[in-house]
């Protein structure tokens, strides 16, 4: 029985205060907490943002300049804009005065100028870098020190404390290396050597992370914003409603499908949550879902959007650089695991709807699928064009260029149809202006974070701490594996050998590391940190790089719905006034598919399709076992299969879930037998009553 609390009352949601998505994003997503500017500063900042977007749009289509110049220019403009757009403490508008020219505090002017100058310094001395690296001049150390301090403050303002604290801890480790115990001891690096490595080499601030943001991610953030302005997001929601809304618990299924579609072009799980959740969460509560469950469904679904091709929260483009693989390979590998996540959420919302006896939406409440497509078909063209170009092997930034251009064309057509030629062109121009500004503004925290993550990566390459952590974790897992194996010797057959148990415990420990380090950190920065710190752990045990990267990426993203820092769940709960912590716990439970599947593709890499182990038989065994395992675990968690379950049945179904995802036919058959036996019992001897 489920005891409702004050946050889960189903009686009346019509009186709830309507909260705008922008308000929720600003409250829960540090990246959206823009300060209020006066008119003069607004015009100036908007103009610079627009020019930044124009620069990237042009270079995407007509060629990117020299790498160091491109990265330095992008970082210079971006960091300067961070100090214009994000205040130190309060978002309130500052009155102009001698202490605040144009309404911007003098300190922020100084920081913005310092950020621009120190970012452009390395491109300026580029021709001398070969002689400076390893033998920096005093001015190099001064400029690098200033940029490090500026980066810490820029990320603190735009994203909060978690990432700066991690970066500071890593720098302390590099500096005080001689003071650390055991395997973590190292000779240490004095400040000039540390700044030299982080500032003047390609292993630090100007490294791969910043390069990918400046070359790929910015363009896809801009594309996502422009595609949304054409009405693509609303089209996704309407299509999902028309297709799934009529089934039991319809609004929840609409939430899952629409969040998957919108998440495929979105770079933020919080933005995805509040955009679709503003419509789907009240609808879920209206038909009878508990409020915390409605919020959890949207949070789990929206977070799943970060692992959905083609954008994958922009991580797909980082993987290109880190793995050296074509984008088509990465996108193909991501399809089945992403499907498994949404399959798991859909199963749980369906079983919950059956358990609670909930209805679907009526015909009057549903949009007409044909009318939706006829009205909004134009907005899907840019996305189709983008995907076709990516699949044909075009560079991601060129595909983004044509995708953005197509969005601009669609805006013109839509505006002319609605307002006539002259007025329509004016409306379209305003739409492009606003879209470019919004896209550039949304990229600011991502760039600052990527540059700061470069510091973390620099420390890892300088000290080798990633492999030291890997050695410690695998050593601990090996000890546990030996102890458990000794306990299992009492059985007449071997369940798992020591190597398999070692890998299993290593995966568990790595998953915990990823979730802890991913708390409060956005998707792109999250992935970069996981690759530097967690992926080497799996590499020591022979896990393929592609498989290891997907594993740490999935568990890093899971932090968005893992209390106590489940930002997506907290944003969703605010829409409906639910208990935030309870919503976070439920969202984590709904994401069990995402939590199980990484273990499946580590032990059965055929699930990722593109690995050497792929055969049709191996894929079907892994995929079929995973789906049945998710079904079994979902039933155990929800306390419903074809009807209510006995306590012992929930326990054996949970055991069956782990047997089903194991990479051996014998364990899969045993799991199928258990699931089949419980299903047969419910058919032959159904248990009476609904478990409300």
UniProtKB/TrEMBL annotation:
Residues 147-611 form the TRAP C4-dicarboxylate transport system permease DctM subunit domain. One of its GO terms (molecular function) is transmembrane transporter activity. GO terms for cellular component: plasma membrane. Its main location: membrane. Keywords: Cell inner membrane, Cell membrane, Membrane, Transmembrane, Transmembrane helix, Transport. InterPro entries: DctM, TRAP_DctM-Dct_fused. It is found in: Cell inner membrane. It is a multi-pass membrane protein. The chain crosses the membrane at residues 37-58, 73-90, 102-125, 137-155, 162-185, 205-227, 327-349, 369-390, 397-414, 449-473, 493-516, 528-555, 561-581, 593-610, 616-637. Pfam families: DctM (PF06808). Part of the tripartite ATP-independent periplasmic (TRAP) transport system. This is TRAP transporter permease. It comes from Halomonas binhaiensis.
């Amino acid at each position: 029985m489920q005891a409702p609390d004050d946050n889960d009352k189903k009686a009346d949601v019509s009186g709830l205060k309507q909260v705008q998505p922008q308000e929720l994003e600003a409250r829960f997503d540090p990246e959206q907490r823009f300060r209020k500017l006066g008119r003069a500063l607004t015009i100036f900042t908007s103009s610079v943002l627009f020019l930044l977007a124009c620069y990237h749009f042009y270079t995407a289509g007509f060629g990117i300049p020299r790498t160091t110049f491109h990265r330095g220019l992008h970082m210079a403009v971006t960091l300067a804009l961070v100090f214009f757009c994000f205040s130190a403490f309060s978002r309130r508008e500052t009155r102009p005065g001698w202490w605040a020219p144009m309404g911007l505090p003098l300190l922020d002017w100084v920081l913005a100028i310092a950020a621009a100058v120190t970012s452009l310094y390395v491109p300026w001395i580029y021709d001398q870098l070969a002689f400076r690296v390893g033998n920096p001049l005093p001015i190099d150390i001064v400029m690098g020190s200033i940029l490090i301090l500026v980066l810490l403050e820029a990320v603190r303002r735009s994203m909060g404390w978690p990432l700066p604290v991690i970066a500071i801890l890593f720098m302390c480790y590099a500096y005080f290396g001689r003071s650390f115990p055991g395997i973590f001891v190292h000779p240490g690096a004095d400040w000039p050597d540390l700044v030299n490595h982080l500032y003047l080499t390609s292993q630090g601030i100007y490294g791969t992370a910043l390069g990918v943001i400046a070359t790929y991610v910015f363009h896809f953030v801009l594309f996502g914003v422009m595609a949304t302005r054409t009405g693509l997001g609303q089209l996704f929601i309407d299509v999902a409603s028309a297709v799934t809304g009529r089934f039991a618990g319809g609004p929840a299924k609409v939430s899952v499908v629409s969040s998957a579609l919108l998440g495929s072009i979105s770079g933020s799980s919080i933005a995805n949550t509040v955009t679709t959740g503003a419509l789907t969460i009240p609808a879920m509560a209206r038909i009878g879902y508990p409020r915390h469950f409605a919020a959890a469904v949207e949070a789990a679904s929206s977070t799943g959007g970060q692992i959905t091709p083609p954008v994958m929260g922009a991580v797909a483009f980082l993987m290109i650089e880190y793995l050296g693989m074509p984008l088509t390979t990465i996108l193909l590998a991501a399809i089945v695991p992403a499907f498994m996540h949404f399959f798991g959420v859909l199963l749980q919302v369906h079983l919950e709807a059956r358990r609670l006896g909930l209805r679907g939406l009526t015909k009057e409440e549903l949009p007409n699928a044909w009318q939706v497509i006829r009205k909004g078909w134009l907005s899907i063209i840019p996305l189709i064009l983008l995907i076709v170009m990516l699949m044909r092997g075009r560079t991601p930034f060129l595909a983004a260029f044509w995708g953005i251009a197509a969005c601009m064309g669609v805006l013109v057509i839509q505006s002319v149809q609605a307002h006539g030629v002259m007025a329509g062109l004016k409306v379209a121009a305003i739409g492009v202006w606003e879209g470019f500004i919004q896209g550039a503004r949304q990229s600011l925290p991502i760039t600052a974070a990527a540059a700061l993550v470069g510091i973390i990566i620099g420390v890892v390459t300088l000290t080798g701490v990633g492999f030291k952590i890997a050695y410690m974790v695998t050593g601990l897992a090996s000890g546990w594996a030996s102890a458990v194996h000794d306990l299992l010797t009492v059985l007449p057959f071997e369940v798992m050998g020591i190597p398999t148990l070692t890998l299993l415990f290593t995966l568990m420990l790595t998953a915990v590391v990823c979730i802890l380090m991913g708390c409060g950190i956005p998707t792109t920065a999250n992935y970069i940190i996981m690759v530097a710190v967690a992926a080497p752990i799996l590499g020591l045990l022979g896990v393929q790089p592609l498989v290891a990267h997907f594993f740490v990426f999935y568990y890093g993203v899971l932090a968005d719905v893992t209390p106590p820092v489940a930002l997506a769940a907290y944003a969703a709960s605010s829409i409906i006034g639910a208990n935030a912590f309870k919503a976070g716990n439920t969202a984590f439970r709904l994401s069990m598919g995402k939590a199980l599947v990484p273990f499946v593709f580590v032990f059965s890499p055929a699930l990722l399709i593109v690995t050497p182990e792929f055969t049709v038989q191996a894929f079907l065994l892994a995929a079929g076992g995973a789906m049945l395992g998710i079904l079994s675990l979902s039933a155990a968690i929800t306390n419903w299969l074809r009807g209510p379950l006995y306590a012992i049945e929930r326990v054996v179904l949970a055991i069956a879930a782990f047997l089903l995802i194991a990479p051996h036919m014998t364990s899969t058959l045993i799991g199928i037998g258990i699931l089949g036996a419980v299903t047969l019992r419910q058919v032959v001897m159904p248990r009476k009553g609904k478990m409300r």
